[in-house]
């Protein structure tokens, strides 16, 4: 066999080998397409790496509304009430507005005034009746109030004058017209002294109020 014949044989061999490789490749591709179709995948779809979905940004918290209200505390002589203006959280509920304001009374004054409620007193419950009577149930710590007509009157009218303000009325609720004070769920007449008549709800009385002393710190 001469050189030309050998070259021709080799060429035919490589052509056959290339053809077999091509057939094998086509067979493999066809097998893959068949498998994808069986799995419900689109053979011609372009695979795109999905970008991770960013979590939604947290909604901005609604701004808390506040209102300036008058909180009534005792003067240093313990014979009159003095109004201290203070911003308190305001919402749609009259009861919750009253609770926030009453918490301010229990916390005490910021001006050089005196508290009207013992600082350890807890607000056990608030109930607003249809006719505008607010029932305030205080804990037994309120019994640490100094005994006497003046201290009891200052506490009563400091609470009542504060909670009957129209600024505390919720948009869909009734406003507070009077306040009944309980101690541990019972009438205050059973635990406090008999200097005052605790059997009826209290209405505002500004006869106990006075203007701040000159030189007092501003709110």
Overall mean pLDDT score? 82
Tell me the domain tally. 2
Report strand order across the widest sheet. 3-4-5-6
- Strand share of the residues? 15-25%
Question: What Rg, in angstroms, do the CA atoms define?
Answer: 42 Å
Task: Please explain how this structure is put together.
- With 219 residues, this protein is α/β, with parallel strands linked by helices.
- It folds into 2 domains: 1-46; 66-210, no CATH class.
- Helix content is 30%, strand content 18%.
- The strands form 2 sheets. A 4-stranded mixed sheet has the order 3-4-5-6, with helices on one face. Strands 1-2-7 form a 3-stranded mixed sheet.
- Strand 4, helix 3 and strand 5 (178-183) form a beta-alpha-beta unit.
């Amino acid at each position: 066999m001469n050189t030309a014949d050998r070259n021709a044989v080799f060429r035919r061999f490589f052509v056959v080998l290339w053809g077999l490789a091509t057939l094998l490749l086509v067979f493999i591709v066809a097998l893959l397409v068949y498998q994808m179709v069986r799995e419900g995948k689109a053979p011609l779809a372009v695979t795109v790496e999905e970008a991770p979905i960013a979590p939604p940004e947290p909604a901005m918290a609604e701004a808390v509304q506040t209102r300036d209200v008058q909180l009534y505390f005792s003067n240093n002589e313990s014979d009159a009430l003095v109004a201290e203006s203070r911003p308190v959280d305001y919402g749609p509920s009259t009861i919750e507005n009253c609770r926030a304001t009453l918490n301010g009374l229990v916390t005490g004054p910021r001006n050089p005034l005196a508290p009207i409620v013992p600082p350890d007193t807890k607000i056990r419950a608030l109930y607003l009746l249809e006719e505008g009577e607010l029932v305030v149930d205080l804990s037994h710590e309120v019994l640490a109030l100094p005994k006497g007509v003046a201290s009891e009157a200052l506490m009563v009218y400091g609470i009542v004058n504060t909670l009957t303000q129209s600024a505390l009325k919720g948009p869909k609720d009734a406003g507070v017209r009077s306040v009944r004070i309980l101690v541990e769920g019972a009438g205050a007449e059973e635990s406090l002294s008999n200097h005052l008549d605790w059997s009826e709800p209290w209405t505002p009385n500004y006869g106990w109020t006075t203007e701040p002393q000159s030189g007092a710190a501003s709110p």
